[in-house]
Write a structure and sequence with these properties.
By secondary structure, this protein is an alpha/beta fold. The chain contains six helices and five strands; from the N terminus they run ββαβααββααα. Strands 3-2-1-4-5 form a five-stranded mixed beta sheet, with helices on both faces. Helix 1 packs across helix 4 and helix 2 crosses helix 3. The chain is globular and about 55 Å long. The C terminus is likely disordered.
């Protein structure tokens, strides 16, 4: 059962990211401020919600939230500043995009780069505990999945319509056979397996 709020003294924004462990594509983040009394029976950590129901929740969240924003940091930036810093950057950009300023940021996970002038609290597995973080996880996931479908149309041989850039067996096999494309994260040291020498 999700808690609607962590505290009630000030306005909260839940913040989460999607795609941090992927081999390809951007990392996405979302920030969401939910109204008092918000409830939806499907809302949960995005990893626990089927794709079709995530799309239903995306629409509900966008219509119901007091404020929401989604941001991304591309694979080139990820390679330049590393994935942890890129995740923080995406979260900060999402917070920048909120039309209503929160008094407290609720961050999914155990660490965060402080956002100027707004206090934050890190909550481990917060997307399964706090409604606003769960809502942020839904938006980050659905927007990223949609984006990866677009990239799939450009590079269909990697199966991104199914694996969304994660390192599945299918994706790794395609990399072994075709090498990397411009959307892969080179800093992740994803390289085709070396051919065995016939001695």
């Amino acid at each position: 059962m999700l808690s609607l709020f962590f505290q009630t003294e000030c306005t909260e924004a839940g913040v989460d990211e999607a795609g941090r462990g992927c081999y390809a594509g951007p990392v996405f983040a979302a920030a969401v401020i939910l109204p008092k009394g918000f409830y939806h029976p499907l809302l949960n950590d995005s990893k626990q919600v089927p794709a079709s129901k995530r799309e239903i929740l995306r629409e509900v969240i966008e219509k119901s939230a007091l404020a929401w924003a989604v941001a991304q940091v591309d694979n080139e930036d990820i390679d330049r500043i590393n994935i942890l810093q890129a995740s923080y950057k995406a979260m900060h950009l999402a917070i920048d995009g909120l039309q209503k300023k929160p008094g407290l940021l609720l961050i999914d996970g155990n660490r965060f780069k402080p956002y100027p002038s707004i206090q934050h609290t890190c909550i481990i597995k917060g997307d399964g505990k706090i409604a606003s973080i769960a809502a942020a996880s839904i938006l980050a996931k659905t927007y990223r999945d949609s984006y990866m479908m677009q990239l799939h149309n450009e590079f269909p041989l990697y199966g991104w319509d199914r694996n969304k850039g994660y390192g599945t067996a299918e994706h790794r096999k395609a990399i072994d056979e075709n090498g990397l494309c411009k959307y892969h994260r080179k800093s992740f040291q994803i390289v085709p397996k070396q051919m065995e020498l016939g001695l």
